[in-house]
Amino acid sequence: MIEDWFTRGLGVSFVNQVMKDRVSTPIGRVECDFAAPSRIGDVLRFRLAVERIGVSSIKLRFEVRHGEEVRVRAALTFP
Description:
This protein is an alpha+beta fold. The protein has one domain (2-78): Hotdog Thioesterase (Thiol Ester Dehydrase, Chain A, Roll). It has helices at residues 2-9, 14-19, and strands at residues 29-34, 45-53, 58-66, 69-78. The longest helix has 8 residues, at 2-9. It is globular and about 40 Å long. It starts with a helix and ends with a strand. The mean pLDDT is 91.
């Protein structure tokens, strides 16, 4: 998901950034709640939102749904 966001959303190849430029994006904090189980064959929809952009960090929120049911909520902070 993060790789897709870099590539599609920011126009920066995450793979090239790590493999060629030797630059990484460490995660400083992860918060995750699993609201319901997913099963093989479930089609999941992922939503990513920027919650906060600071001077030296960014916080992203994720929500994963199957239909209208929330399966996972997560927040990642990159220092």
